[in-house]
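re: that chain from earlier
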Amino acid sequence: MTPMEVAEAWNGVTDEWFVRLYKGKERPWQVCRLSGNVISEDTLKVLSSHGSKQMAERHRERRENEARGAAVLKAMRRTR
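^ sequence. v structure.
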């Protein structure tokens, strides 16, 4: 697998992960995943809730990196 193929697999993940503040909850910082171009209840999934923005950002980054890493592994299996 070439470095370019790795980069294409890593950057080929089109889902988005983000943190939002959802007031009125004990753990108001939510990590969300968007699968699609339009934010709606059909394409938005709340993955977890956290008490601090810092913890939510860490979780968001981990989930995004896991998805991108999985895409690279999948591409590696296809090239064998």
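Strands lie at 16-21, 29-34, 44-50.
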